[in-house]
Specification:
Elements: H1 3-13, E1 16-17, H2 18-27, H3 37-49, E2 53-55, E3 68-71, H4 73-83, H5 95-106, H6 110-139, H7 145-176
Antiparallel strand pairs: 1-3, 2-3
């Protein structure tokens, strides 16, 4: 599981509280690795217990004050170890693809075409959002290694969303013109 590594990465970028991490996951990391508020807090506890992070000392102890965490040397070492690991690419596991495959058995209905159109709109919106991020980042580009790597991750997101929009356009066009339903196959 990569959630602890996503949290270590985020904390190395900027020490944060659990709430701040949750917000950052919603705004950036969550585009490619999602986690719920509860998962983040549970993982923070595990990372702290393992000695990978620590809560920063508070100026004045107050009840209910949010803890801000930073990464300790063992946490950085764990992240470096994990970054160096080899991993096989994962197969696409998407219920939409399975539902599309099932149309070969049950036929294409308007419900599926509507769902494909909905997915296309969602991917197009995400693509527009990523392109806006690129425009924003280009205006403030600092040219650091961190900027380069974050730009590569963002470009990967753009390419993936562009793939989905193009593929869904073809799928919708092909299926909308299709007359292959179980009834028309003479079954």
């Amino acid at each position: 599981m990569s959630l602890p590594h996503a949290i270590l990465t985020a904390l190395l970028e900027k020490p944060s509280s659990g709430l701040e991490l949750t917000r950052r996951f919603d705004r950036s990391i969550g585009y490619f690795w999602s986690a719920t508020h509860q998962q983040i807090y549970r993982e923070l506890g595990k990372l702290e217990k393992a000695g990978h992070i620590r809560a920063l000392p508070a100026d004045s102890p107050t009840r209910g004050q949010k803890k801000e965490y930073e990464v300790l040397a063992p946490g950085r070492e764990e992240l470096e170890r994990w970054v160096g690991e080899q991993e096989e690419p994962r197969a696409l596991r998407d219920p939409l693809m399975l539902r599309l495959r099932a149309t070969g058995v049950v036929g294409v209905g308007e419900d599926l075409l509507a769902e494909l159109r909905r997915h296309r709109a969602l991917h197009a919106a995400r693509l527009a959002e990523y392109r806006e991020f690129q425009r924003r980042d280009a205006a403030r580009d600092h040219g650091t290694e961190r900027d380069l790597v974050q730009g590569l991750v963002l470009q990967g997101g753009v390419d993936i969303e562009r793939f989905w929009v193009d593929w869904l356009d073809r799928a919708i066009a092909d299926l909308a013109g299709s007359e292959h339903t179980p009834a028309s196959q003479g079954g």
